[in-house]
Amino acid sequence: MAASAAVLWGINGAVSKTILSTGLSSERLAQLRSLGAAVGLAAVVAVIAPRRLRLTRRELPYLLVFGIAGLAFVQWFYFQAIDRLAIGIALLIEYLAPLLVALWARFVYHDHVRRRLWVALGLALAGLALIVDVFGGGESVSTAGVGFALAGAVAYALYVLLAEHVVGGRDAVSLLAYGFAFASVFWAILAPWWTFPGGALTKTTSLGGHLHTVHLPVWALALWMIVLGTMIPFFLLVNALRHISATRAGIVAMLEPVVGALVGWAWLSESLDGIQLLGAAVVLVAIGLAQTAR
């Protein structure tokens, strides 16, 4: 489930990039994504098991932090980071999150973390560095950008740890419905809905790259982003936490940049050289090693 979520997120990167090329801002796209996922997930729960929407006082603080500091802040800090850094560098820093989860498990929960898991983390980060060509850009690094990217890593780690904590007493769908609902409230305060450029969704755009001859309405791409790029993969990852630890789930999620790089090459005609392919192979080895650390 965690691997499937990472694959869907990797594909969603190209979908989101195509939407952003139409002029819709990153903040508005995140706002649309959060509200669409909240409405869709809440509708599913309301039809299948409406009792699961009941909320207790004890859960409220966790769900508030999960939705705002987890789901909303991961996107917010990432957007701030890529505004100041190359996307590859920001992505690499944000994927320090699995290491933070492992450190939390070891020193706060006092869990036994096997040595091979630390090796897997090191290999995964090294592979990501090769994929994003972190040393090949030759660009100056913004201190503020690095700070935002590190904050994004902390938010991502917090999201996974909170999900692992809450999922024991609440199903994944209602958990995410509340999480995205609180994230939507955050975005609505930051950017009121009455200022949303609704006309941007009615445009038709080319898919670009090798699919430049194919044109789709922006709303169709947005629907893909909400359902296949948000609702389903988040459900899969949260549900996976019932079966594997947050540390292992975080390492498996590192498949996302691997898939993203391959989709970018196959769809958007982005370059993919031998070093990047080597990095993808290293990440896959790291994930396989992590799966043996039961």
Give a nutshell description of this structure.
The chain is an all-alpha fold and 294 residues long.
Q: How far apart lie the N and C ends?
A: 17 Å
Strand content: under 5%
Principal-axis shape: globular
Secondary-structure content class: mainly alpha
Major sheet description? 2 strands, antiparallel
Unreliable spans: none
N-to-C SSE string, H for helix and E for strand: HHHHHHHHEEHHHH
Q: How many beta-strand elements?
A: 2
The whole-angstrom Rg is: 19 Å
Strand arrangement in the largest pleated sheet? 1-2
Please describe the topology of this protein.
Elements: H1 2-20, H2 26-48, H3 59-82, H4 87-94, H5 97-107, H6 115-131, H7 143-166, H8 172-190, E1 204-206, E2 215-217, H9 218-240, H10 246-252, H11 255-266, H12 274-291
Antiparallel strand pairs: 1-2
Care to describe what's here?
This protein is mainly alpha-helical and 294 residues long. The protein has one domain. 70% of the residues lie in helices and 2% in strands. The protein has 12 helices and 2 strands. It has helices at residues 2-20, 26-48, 59-82, 87-94, 97-107, 115-131, 143-166, 172-190, 218-240, 246-252, 255-266, 274-291; strands at residues 204-206, 215-217. It has a two-stranded antiparallel sheet with strand order 1-2. A hairpin with an 8-residue loop joins strand 1 and strand 2 (215-217). Helix 1 (2-20) crosses helix 11 (255-266), helix 4 runs parallel beside helix 7 and helix 5 packs across helix 7. It is globular. The chain starts with a helix and ends with a helix. The mean pLDDT is 83.
